[in-house]
Design a protein that fits this description.
single chain, alpha+beta, Umud Fragment, subunit A, 7-stranded antiparallel β-sheet, 4-stranded antiparallel β-sheet, 13 strands, 13% helix, elongated
């Protein structure tokens, strides 16, 4: 368009009597293929570097998570907080090869974790934890012989269904090296 005085006058680019040329069918196919390829690259990039879908198996995280439930985890998480739910690779542990577990972070590096099985209480740095998310009080000892000080680069994890969970109380899992954490649960 160009301006003529106070009025806008359309600029003629093509003869209005001639129809616009149609796209060649092959060009439409190539454009669609390009869009599909870009979507696949974006999805692969996201699941490799940002988020990943996972599925819950078992009941060690009841009542928070149920078996069969689908989760999305952040794979770029590198800093963890108390209460985070994390997905841990069995690599580096005595768990069967390729087994993945989902647990809650109870202790971070430097924390002292103790469990009083008679009072059914978990202590972090001498303070009893309020745990409204657990299924029942912690009675199952496993191999736990506390108190345990969490080493640098590790976390102490427990399942929410404490009496049906293999977690940091067990010699099979123990303290979890943070490099074995595949991601933090973002949403379910």
């Amino acid at each position: 368009m160009r301006v003529s005085g106070e009025f806008w006058v359309p600029l003629r680019l093509q003869n209005d009597d001639q129809p616009l040329p149609e796209k060649h069918p092959l060009r439409v196919v190539f454009e669609a293929a390009g869009t599909l390829a870009a979507a696949i690259v974006l999805m692969v990039g996201m699941t490799t570097f940002l988020v990943k879908p996972v599925r819950v198996y078992g009941d060690s995280m009841l009542p928070t998570l149920r078996g069969g439930q689908r989760l999305v985890i952040s794979v770029c998480a590198s800093r963890f907080r108390h209460g985070d739910i994390v997905v841990v690779s069995g690599a580096g542990h005595s768990l069967p090869y390729r087994q993945v577990i989902i647990k809650r972070v109870i202790g971070l590096p430097g924390d002292v974790i103790d469990i009083d099985f008679e009072a059914n209480a978990v202590y972090r740095n001498g303070q009893a934890l309020e745990e409204p998310y657990i299924a029942e009080p912690t009675e199952r000892r496993e191999d736990f012989d506390g108190p345990v000080t969490v080493k640098p680069g590790a976390v102490f994890v427990l399942g929410d269904n404490r009496n049906r969970s293999t977690d940091s109380r067990s010699a099979l899992v123990g303290l979890v090296d943070q490099r074995c954490i595949l991601g933090r649960v973002m949403f379910k």
